[in-house]
Structure formats: structure tokens, C-alpha cells
Design a protein that fits this description.
Tetracycline Repressor, domain 2, 2 domains, 9 helices, Arc Repressor Mutant, subunit A, single chain, about 0% strand, about 190 residues, mainly alpha
């Protein structure tokens, strides 16, 4: 008879994710992960594979439980300018109050790896493309509803919004002065004016 797992994999994954979030992939050791989760290396390997597998699962967990909540309104079929404003207000507020100095696990990973590991780089690129597509769809709906000028480039604006969103995440990691994020949020709102 197989032994029952003696830990909650979701809880262990959440704790491991926070270690990667604070220390980065390279700065995190298996010792760090076992200390944070309270799970022996053999248990982590059995549940998640190696360190790389645990990191990949941590990224997915972060996407579903953090980024997913930040962007929830943007991925609805009704998303328009109001939902874009909600998303930017939320990221502005989050970066000023939530875990200042650590930024975003996804953005940190993208900066840490660059193009050095295609499997991870592709994942980070996919996320940016997915966001750009969601912004573009929201802008298109706004044009159709007569709430945003049809002569503005949807593609260029969507790409700019992805860049600004990620800029907020980088500023949050650097614990930027609040007025910088406040002015950036006002600039986003001005961009979205018709």
C-alpha cells in the first residue's frame, strides 16, 4: 500500500512560490524551499519534480492566483475602457501597498532569464501576447461602442498598455516613489480618453 502524502501540495506550492518571488530562480536553493515548505526534498521531488518543475508550477500558481485576479475584468467578453481603467487602478494600488520591493514573479523571471532558457522565455512571451490581445479586444469593443476614436491604432495602444503595465511591476519592485506611479496612472487615464 502506498503511503499517503503528509503535506498539502497546494500549501507547499504557495510557500515555494513566495521563495522564488523574493529570491529569484537562481537565488533559491532546495534548502530554501524545504525550509519554507517544511517538506523534505524527496517529498518535493515526488510532488513537483526537480527545482525547475517546482518553479514552473509556481509560475502557474502565481498566474492563476495573483495575475489572474489582477486582470480578471480584462478577460471578460464585455471588457472595454472601464475594465482597462480598473486593471490599471488595481495594479497601481497593489504596487504601492502589496509586498513592496518584490515586484511580480512573472516580470522578475522574465528579467532574470531573458532569452537564456527558451522554455521559460516562451512562457513569459506568451503572457505578454495574451495581455496585448486582451487589451486590443477591449479597445476594439470600445471603438464599436463609440467610446474610443476609430482612428487610433488599437495594436499600438495595446502594446503600449502592456509596456506600461509591466512598467508598474518593475517600479513596484524598485519601491518607486508613489508620485511616479500616481502620474503614470493619470497618463494611462489620459491615453484612454476619447
Amino acid at each position: 500500500m502506498a503511503r499517503k502524502r503528509e503535506f498539502d501540495p497546494e500549501e507547499a506550492l504557495d510557500k515555494a512560490m513566495h521563495v522564488f518571488w523574493e529570491k529569484g530562480y537562481a537565488g533559491t536553493s532546495m534548502r530554501d524551499l524545504t525550509a519554507a515548505t517544511g517538506v523534505a526534498p524527496a517529498g518535493l521531488y515526488a510532488a513537483f519534480g526537480d527545482k525547475d518543475g517546482l518553479y514552473q508550477k509556481s509560475l502557474e500558481h502565481y498566474r492563476d492566483n495573483y495575475i489572474g485576479r489582477l486582470l480578471a475584468e480584462l478577460f471578460t467578453d464585455e471588457a472595454g475602457l472601464d475594465e482597462i481603467r480598473v486593471v490599471f487602478t488595481r495594479i497601481h494600488d497593489r504596487q504601492q501597498t502589496f509586498r513592496r520591493g518584490v515586484g511580480c514573479l512573472w516580470t522578475n523571471g522574465a528579467m532574470e532569464f531573458g532569452d537564456t532558457q527558451p522554455d521559460k522565455s516562451d512562457l513569459f512571451r506568451w503572457n505578454a501576447v495574451r495581455m496585448e490581445d486582451a487589451f486590443a479586444r477591449a479597445l476594439s469593443r470600445s471603438v464599436e461602442a463609440g467610446k474610443w476614436p476609430a482612428d487610433r491604432s488599437i495594436d499600438q495602444t495595446a502594446a503600449l498598455l502592456v509596456s506600461i503595465f509591466n512598467g508598474f511591476l518593475v517600479l513596484g519592485r524598485g519601491s518607486a516613489e508613489p508620485h511616479i506611479m500616481d502620474r503614470s496612472l493619470k497618463a494611462v487615464f489620459a491615453l484612454l480618453e476619447s
